[in-house]
Amino acid sequence: MYEVRFHGRGGQGAVMAAQALAEAAVIEGRHAQAFPYFGAERRGAPVMAFARIDDRKISIKSQVYEPDLLVVLDESLLDIEPVARGLKKDGKAVINTRKLPTEIDLGVEVECATVPATSIAMEFLKAPIVNTAILGAVVRMCDLVSMESMQQAIANRFGEKFGETAAKANAAAAAAAHAQAAIGRCKGRRPLAQKKEWLPAWNEIPIGTTLDERIVDGVTVGPGGARQNLTGSWRVQTPRYDKEKCVRCQRCWFSCPEGCIKREEDEYVRWDLNYCKGCGICAQVCPVKAIDMIKGGSR
Amino acid sequence: MSEMRTIKDMPVNDMFVSGHGACAGCGMAVAVKNIMRILGADTTVYVPASCLVVISAMYPTSNFRTPYLFTAFENTGAVTTGIRAAQRRRGLSSTVVGLAGDGGTFDIGLQALSGAAERNEDILYVCLDNEGYMNTGIQRSGATPFGAWTTTTPVGTKVEGKREFKKDIMAIIAAHDPPYAASLSIAHFNDFIKKVEKAKAKKGFRFLHVMTPCVPGWRSDPSMTVEIARMAVETGMWTLYEIEDGEARTTYKPQTMLPVTDYLKLQGRFRHMENGDVAKLQEWLCAKWYLHYGNDMEQPVCATFEKMKRVRHPHEEQLHFI
Questions:
Q1: What is the spatial distance between Cα A135 and Cα A177, in angstroms, rounded to a whole number?
Q2: Quick one: residue B142, left, alpha or beta (phi over 0 = left, psi -120 to 50 = alpha)?
Q3: What is the pLDDT of residues B100-148, one digit of tens each?
Q4: Is B266 inside a domain boundary?
Q5: pLDDT digits 0-9 by tens, A163-193
Q6: Which of A113, A184, A217, B179 has the most CB atoms at less than 10 Å from its CB?
Q7: Residue A202: CB partners within 8 Å, gap ≥ 6?
Q8: Contacts of A226 in chain B (CB under 8 A)
Q9: Nearest chain B residue to A235, by CA
Q10: Which is it for strands A237-241 and A291-295: parallel, antiparallel or unpaired?
Q11: Which residues of B touch A285 (CB under 8 A)?
């Protein structure tokens, strides 16, 4: 059995990519399954999708914990998620980046393909939806399915949902990525963090009351405990603040959905970029244009 | 405590903390965060099934620094009634607030809401109206406006989006004669603050109706959330008024009515709408405009619907705000 795990951000099309890969395998007469990881996170949040391909009927229904192939649709995920967790020693990886495979530190040293899928998607689809482009690189990386059946699967998947023109553009993007992918070995220096999970047992919750705010094994729980979710990792654009222009109207403070804009003593504002999702509302509501959004999620 | 008039008078302590899982540019998060700032720490929050419970309550954590309860979809009115009754019994008196979505208010929760309003329970009910069941993947609700695309009102060759107009929930609430009911917009900051503070101070059943633009459901740009809320008021899709002890008062009246296309073009869910449907929506809006703001000022965009302003609303006598 061949297991694939896709890492992307909500809205990039990781689920559609997994489905198209499975469909390509089905076209070649094999058995396949594809399904997303259902979290409660929204657009821009790190998401996962899975695919399994086998010559026999697949009866396993669990998530993919030890993938043979890892597909990363967004390079910035490498810094915030242990994406390579469980990747087999002889596994493979496909990463959307402008860098060469040897410049990538995945945490596990494996054979790796890199492809500038975002710029390919912008060229063919006029939108940063990278799922079809990266599938071209997946075909190049491993002889799992042929390029013909992959293009057929993309045409089926996207034609039925978005029409024939969209299907053709997506198939062309996949072909371009197939040609542009670079193959090499990535580095394995990065330590892979283990996620901590904690749930209280029944006897740890006081009867008739709610859980109070406290720290258990380094994890904050209880009311207000969600502050540990640093949603700033979702950001693809960052606000830049010009204090000279600011008239201290506080509109940005009121309109920020994250509450990451803080009011100072002197009524000027500052950003807590640990939580900023980069929506750009603050720049839009500012009456004097003291805030503008710059590309990239860095500080 | 001194009266809050502008943003600068608002408390800076966040009761709805950062780190929630809402989409970038979520209008509901803006509304909830500011309502919780004004209500303060002495508040008990109830949330029925909605986006809000999903983004803010990943057990064992929550984004509310106040006591927080969640049960089923349809019983916001009933559960908040129960919380308040338990508080009375124990000699407590914190603000009890139910933060429900439009599905949990307009459709599924209407009976519990009506019951609580009729009994004049001492609770604050907030309807966060994103005009659809956005949490489960964009289905139509009673709050979805005419012509809007949803997954259950798809755009095809025969039917193009929703065929029914938005339910007037405020008129239903007004018929219960509550001590306080108001419609709010996240784009009118000072108006928002005054109404939430007034609702906090009153006793009895209080109702707040907030428009909260939804980025994935409305197919809009994340940065335009507040602008869409502002355009809704300028085009008449949303009207700002309050009903206090049976007396209605318009709190903000736009100078001139902008054509509804200014509002529609900001959102992908209306992209398919053709001239016939736009005119139908505009005609409905003109009737609503003259109903709320009076017909002494003629609106240029309504000139083609000259007959409209003479038409009396069928339930005119029953509505408080005329």
A1: 8
A2: alpha
A3: 999 999 999 999 999 999 999 999 999 999 999 998 889 999 999 999 9
A4: yes
A5: 788 888 888 898 999 998 888 888 888 777 6
A6: A113
A7: none
A8: 17, 19-20, 56, 58, 61-63
A9: B24
A10: antiparallel
A11: 226-227
B2: in domain: no
**A2-185: CATH class:** alpha beta
How far apart CA B179 and CA B233 sit, in angstroms, is 24
Structural domain of B232: 7-318
Are residues B19 and A229, on separate chains, in Cβ contact within 8 Å? yes
Enter the tokens of residue B6. Answer: 């502008």
Bond into A287 cis (ω within 30): no
Residue B123 in any domain: the answer is yes
Torsion angle defined by CA atoms of residues A236, A241, A246 and A251, in that order, rounded to the nearest 10 degrees: 30
Could you tell me the CATH number of the domain that includes residue B281? Answer: 3.40.50.970
CATH for A229-295? 3.30.70.20
Domain ranges for chain A, please list them.
2-185, 229-295
Contact B68 A256 (CB under 8 A): no
In this complex, the residue of B20, B23, B227 whose CB is nearest that of residue A43 is B23
| Residues in A touching B56 (Cβ below 8 Å) | 226
Domain count for chain B, please give it. Answer: 1
